[in-house]
Design a protein that fits this description.
The radius of gyration is 15 Å and the shape is globular. Strands 1, 2, 3, 4, 5, 6, 7 and 8 form an 8-stranded mixed sheet that branches. It contains 3 helices and 8 strands, in the order E-E-E-E-H-E-E-E-H-E-H. Helix content is 27%, strand content 36%. Keywords: Hydrolase.
Length: 146
Amino acid sequence: MKKAYAIVIRNGLILLVRRPGMPIWDLPGGDLLPNENERDGMRRLISELLSFNSVVEDLIGIYTKEHHEEITYVYKVQETVSQSRMESHDYADFSFFDIHNLPLNVYPDRQRQIKDYLTGRFPVRLRLKENKWLFKLKSFIKEKRK
């Protein structure tokens, strides 16, 4: 399974989103369609999830996870129209945060990917370890939904 996430910077602030039922901030993005090009998929996800047009710029990194057949692509994405109006029916909330002072409840993998963006040494290829507390949180949420 392939996924793509965007780092969208506006006036030195980074866009973070929250999905319904999840108390964790994340980067905008999600699953790519089968046989979909990563850059085209990223553009499609931004358009569908946040309702604004974008230009996919640099590849920040390609990430894999232990025990998962998942590849995650992280791109720097620029709005085609500065200060675009954003709307979303898929996210419970979205907001811009100081990139050097992120909230404490940011998805751990995304913290690493934002850090890689800040170093400026990309593209990064990294195999991430499974985060135990996040695995427990996902399991707990699945149980509660039943």
